[in-house]
Amino acid sequence: MLPSLLSKNQIQEIKEGLKGITPGEPNLQNISSCFDVCFLHPKVLSGIVHIINYPFISVGIQFRPNPPGRGTSKLHVAYGGVPPYDGTYYACNVIWMIDEFTMQNGPTRAVPTSHRWGRIPEEMMSDPRKSFPGEVYWVGPAGSAVVFNGHLWHSTTRNQSERNRIAIVTAWHRHGTKTAPRASQWGVLNEYAKNRLSPSAKYLFP
C-alpha cells in the first residue's frame, strides 16, 4: 500500500468529478483531467512496472463505489488468460481509496501469495464468497493506493456502514495481451482525452 498519495484537494476534486457518473464507468480518463493522477502518479507507475516487468497498457480507469449493504463478491483474479509462469505476470490493478477503507465499509480482501499458485479460486474452494485461510483486508486512509498483481485472489466485502465507499480502480495488462471482448473499449481514448494528454500519457492507452 502507498498511503495518502492524494492531497485533500485532489480527493475533493475527484469526488466532485464523480458526481453524476454511472457506477462502473470504465473510462474516467475521457471525462475529466481530475482523474489523471490515478494513471500518471509516478509511484504507482513504478509499482506497475515492477509487477508486469514489460510494456503495459490501460484496460480501464474505473469508478467503483461500494454502497451500503452491497459489495459481497467472490474471490477472483483480474485476468482471464493463461496462468502466470516463471514469474511472468500479465495483469496489475490499482485501487485508489477515494474514501477511507475501514473494516466496516467493505474493504477489499486478498489472499497473499495466491498470484504464484497458477490457479483460480474455484479450483480450490467450493464457494469463493467464503473466507480463505490467511486472507487479509486492505484498510487505509483516503488518498491511498494499493498496487497489486492481477493474478492475486481478491474481492470486495460487504459495506456494513451507512455511507457509500468510493474507489477508483485502474487496470493494466501486459502489452500484446488479448483483452476480453467486453473490455475491448476499456481504456480507449476519446477525442477530448487525445487532445489534452501528453504523448507519454497517451502511450499508456491502446
List keywords for this structure.
single chain, 206 residues, alpha+beta, three-stranded antiparallel beta sheet, 5 helices
What does this structure look like?
The protein is α+β, with helices and mostly antiparallel strands. It is 17% helix and 20% strand. The protein has five helices and seven strands. The strands form two sheets. The chain has a four-stranded antiparallel sheet, with helices on one face. A three-stranded antiparallel sheet has the order 4-3-6, with no helix packed on it. It starts with 7 loop residues before the first helix and ends with a helix. The model has no long low-confidence stretch (mean pLDDT 94).
Q: What gap, in angstroms, lies between the N and C termini?
A: 27 Å
**Main beta sheet, described?**
4 strands, antiparallel
Helix content: 10-25%
Strand arrangement, major sheet? 1-7-2-5
Any low-confidence stretches, pLDDT <50, length ≥5? none
The number of distinct helices, counting runs of at least 4 residues, comes to 5
Mean pLDDT across every amino acid position = 94
Q: What's the alpha carbon Rg, rounded to whole Å? A: 16 Å
Work out the number of β strands.
7
The run of helices and strands is HHHEEEEEEEHH
Task: Give the helix/strand class.
Answer: alpha+beta
Strand content: 15-25%
The shape, in one word, is: globular
